[in-house]
């Protein structure tokens, strides 16, 4: 009986410690790991003045935890602003005009300029006036590689935007991890034009990159698990010459022999977390698994006009075996206070899982 009691106490203690650990601040599972942070669409943080400090808290949390979590890279999945080019906020879908929005998101990211490389992509709300009525974006006016010291250290090349300018709207980066694994990361514009897809295909196919792990970052690509993680086939925006998710898979990703990860945002809903996340895995032409993930949070903090997303971000821990990635979903917004820290983790299977690279 005493042996059974002792076993029960040990088991209870194990689960209690596990629960306590997941209610505290993030830490590495392996001290030799390195971390990538994935930020979902910032637009609802940015369109309301009162929400902007939440996104600033998120980027400052990254800065503060750079050493503790060995954070080496940050990805942001687009829709940096709600309206790219409006003179006045309407007070309903935001109280900030576009210049105020771009200035706010630039200021939030500026704390990382000399700390850690961050890679952005342009979403539909980053084009046109309100949402992709055309391909004019102010992104290049606010995010110049010359200002982004850490990002410039991995920036390898840029492709032309719609106006023919070389900008970060379409760019590729060479990143070598602390485990000496080489990554080629391409950030592609919203619904990329055919010429961008073809140029990207040629870049990934270069002999130089045959041993690199390829990563594609683009805003709109796939749907949530509520919609069976399906690839997007059609959208109703006014921009022309578009490549939707399914076609991007067929023309760029599947034919590749080295692309192994795809990150995107864009989709969302007010019906719970499952409307805002998704994952699928398929083989590319090199018979390598391609891990495709959608992660958005803009409706999780009270809907489309809520607080912007409750501060949720993704922590991707790359283990020293050079294959395993542990994915966790954490909120610095909840984690900042002892009274809310128990809410700072999302532990469902679709928000806390691991994958293996080839």
From TrEMBL:
Which parts of the sequence belong to the Calcineurin-like phosphoesterase domain?
58-267
For this UniProt entry, the molecular function terms from Gene Ontology, in alphabetical order, are: hydrolase activity
Give the SUPFAM superfamilies listed for this entry.
Metallo-dependent phosphatases
What InterPro entries is this protein classified in? Calcineurin-like_PHP, Metallo-depent_PP-like, STPP_CPPED1
PANTHER family with a match to the protein in the record:
METALLOPHOSPHOESTERASE, CALCINEURIN SUPERFAMILY, SECRETED PROTEIN
The protein, known as: Serine/threonine protein phosphatase
| Species this chain originates from | Aureibaculum algae
């Amino acid at each position: 009986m005493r042996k059974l009691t002792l076993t029960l106490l040990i088991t209870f203690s194990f689960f209690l410690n596990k629960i306590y650990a997941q209610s505290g601040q993030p830490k590495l599972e392996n001290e030799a790991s390195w971390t990538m942070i994935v930020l979902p669409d910032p637009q609802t943080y940015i369109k309301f003045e009162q929400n902007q400090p939440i996104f600033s808290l998120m980027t400052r949390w990254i800065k503060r935890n750079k050493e503790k979590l060995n954070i080496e890279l940050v990805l942001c999945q687009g829709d940096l602003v709600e309206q790219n080019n409006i003179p006045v906020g309407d007070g309903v879908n935001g109280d900030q005009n576009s210049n105020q929005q771009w200035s706010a998101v630039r200021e939030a990211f500026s704390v990382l300029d000399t700390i850690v490389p961050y890679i952005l992509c342009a979403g539909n709300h980053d084009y046109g006036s309100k949402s992709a009525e055309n391909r004019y974006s102010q992104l290049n006016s606010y995010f110049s590689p010359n200002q982004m010291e850490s990002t410039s250290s991995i920036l390898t090349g840029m492709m032309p935007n719609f106006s023919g300018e070389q900008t970060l709207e379409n760019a590729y980066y060479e990143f070598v991890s602390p485990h000496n694994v080489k990554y080629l990361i391409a950030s592609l514009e919203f619904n990329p034009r055919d010429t961008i897809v073809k140029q990207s295909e040629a870049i990934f196919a270069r002999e130089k990159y045959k041993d690199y792990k390829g990563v594609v970052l683009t805003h709109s690509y796939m749907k949530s698990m509520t919609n069976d993680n399906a690839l997007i086939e059609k959208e109703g925006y006014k921009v022309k010459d578009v490549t939707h998710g399914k076609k991007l898979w067929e023309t760029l990703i599947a034919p590749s022999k080295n692309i192994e990860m795809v990150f995107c945002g864009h989709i969302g809903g007010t019906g719970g977390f499952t409307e805002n996340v998704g994952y699928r895995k398929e083989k590319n032409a090199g018979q390598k698994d391609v891990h495709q993930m959608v992660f958005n949070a803009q409706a999780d903090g009270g809907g489309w006009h809520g607080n912007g997303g409750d501060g949720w971000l993704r922590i991707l821990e790359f283990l020293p075996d050079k294959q395993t990635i542990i994915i966790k979903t954490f909120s610095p917004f909840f984690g900042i206070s002892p009274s809310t820290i128990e809410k700072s983790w999302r532990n469902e299977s679709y928000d806390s899982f691991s994958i293996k690279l080839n």
